[in-house]
Amino acid sequence: MELSERRQRILAAIVEQFIASGEPVGSKALCNLFEMSISSATIRNEMAALAELGLIEQPHTSAGRIPSHLGYRYYVDHLMNCQALGTKQRRALEESMSAHSGDPEQILEQAGELLAEITNCAAVSTTPTDESAVIRKVDLLPMGGRTIMLVLVTSNGVVRSRGCRLAEPVTPELIETFYAITEHTFLGQPVANVNLVLIKRLTPLLGDNAPLMQQILIALSELAWDAAKEEILLEGQTNLLHHREFGNNAYELLEFLGRGEPMSQLLSTASSPLRVIIGRETPFHELENSSLIVARYTISGRRGGVLGIIGPTRIDYAKLIPNVEYLTKLVGRLLGEVLGEEGTDIGPGTE
Amino acid sequence: MELSERRQRILAAIVEQFIASGEPVGSKALCNLFEMSISSATIRNEMAALAELGLIEQPHTSAGRIPSHLGYRYYVDHLMNCQALGTKQRRALEESMSAHSGDPEQILEQAGELLAEITNCAAVSTTPTDESAVIRKVDLLPMGGRTIMLVLVTSNGVVRSRGCRLAEPVTPELIETFYAITEHTFLGQPVANVNLVLIKRLTPLLGDNAPLMQQILIALSELAWDAAKEEILLEGQTNLLHHREFGNNAYELLEFLGRGEPMSQLLSTASSPLRVIIGRETPFHELENSSLIVARYTISGRRGGVLGIIGPTRIDYAKLIPNVEYLTKLVGRLLGEVLGEEGTDIGPGTE
DNA sequence: GTTAGCACTCAGAACGTTTGAGTGCTAACA
DNA sequence: TGTTAGCACTCAAACGTTCTGAGTGCTAAC
Prior knowledge:
homodimer; alpha+beta; Arc Repressor Mutant, subunit A; 46% helix; DNA-binding
């Protein structure tokens, strides 16, 4: 869609005014903004044209105009003046993230909280899901009686555990056998490979304790599945209640976010470094009035997860995009520091 | 406070009617309820007396009455007809909890979700904090380069991990020394004991690698602190948006719940098996219009955490209390199964 | 292509009226 | 002394009316 220079200026002004004030923007207000270089009548003509193109809308006859989803899209793609963060702001973000616990999920949580606070939106992030992640460690801890605890650690820093009540008491031999199997079957194995098929194949090797051992291995495979699964972290959902555009429908949105799977689906499509999704561009009607700004972080050059924000369509894209962008890079760096730099040892990443 | 039989019946009727309808209850409505055994004028007289005692209130002159916090309290303490769950309902709860992952936190999460769904309130729970919990296992995993990962497992099923970038590359000797120290100093030690004081005392024993080892041990102590710390899990917060009494102040409440510490403080006082906290009975003005029903679960006779719900003061106490009560017992039992029954081996719990 | 002017529209505020549920009080009654 | 019918009173909420002003679209002149 080609727009004349003047129409672009008018559209940009409408979007920016509306983002700043939340009120529909009238021709007179724009006229003042352009310092009388054109009259309000001319602007009205141009606005009629923009409305024709579907870039702006009128809530009702006697109101000003507001950007449509298409209008926002055009603004984000062509008009927005999006400047990189200043050193001061970058420092501030680094500062806020410097005191982290070292736990990958906690780092993501912290970044989400920070992002939510800065943007006054909800923050969303996903744990790293890297198909090349392998099992680093498996522990079996007898907890007394017939219960054990399994702990699984992956090479990308995911730790999962579960207790498990067995049919019979645990014996030292059982544990020994388990560690033997683990040693030459599971360690170094891609997490996603530890599934029931693999377990089944081991059955002939289990000997005396087969049924009991099988129970444990099934539990382990469930644990591996859990570890491979992407997890969605949400922070600052309550911020969304501030935005009057959600009004009393905030429940629907929050409930949608809490559901997880659709979000997961949506975020998985964010392959490019940064993605802006506006309103109806998603198939989910719950997000009709929302925008997402999400970016994918990489850990030592390898695919990580995503980090971003969800807010009303009326958010300050130009200001928030650089924040999401930088914080995502920062998170990737921190996770790299915490999880080691195997990626660089192995060679350049696949992407 | 002594109330005549009749006043008790009237108060109970007001509370129950109001809980059911959400509308102030008038004398005429009550009159119908009592099937004309007394007239509305008499009821008005009695209501005036109850209002005098502070048990009911009038939103405005020409409205019916609603229970005050004191009124709810009196109802919960003396009038409520709270029946234990039927076998069918108990089965349903057991059913819903039967497919659990075995991870203590996930079990609590699941119970919270269930409770939130049943009650249409927010559910809150805390991880078990048992001072007698000891360290069961510590793992140090080199992650390549100068980074390591520490994993800590406690006897009450809490698992915490963190990555850590060291000043120098890790050597096999370092790891060996670490495990030696762990073996005779940390394992079996109460989690709360692993603090900087203990670390300091170890310094002379560290030999060559003292500075590096110290860095690791400090990280470990932070991890232990994290593991000992009670964690608050919230589920179904969005349910609170359904209750019109919160209206547009839901934000304040949700924000308060998200803050954590005050809740932690409040819940820690719930020592008795079941506690009902109504409106202004807490010091927190954010909870002014909310009620809590919380119960403490025990794991194999030992102190666990709490599980309960948060809703408006206008909730169906008689119906929800048995649910919270039973689900709490169920969670305690499940955690006992998953974490082993050491408690019974050691002897009867301290409480 | 631009602009001034003007009639028109319509949401939202302001104001008054009506309605009805519910009360408190009083006086009569059991 | 406790209970009841009757009645005047109150007041939130619903409804209707009017007013206001921001903003528009259209037209005719520049």
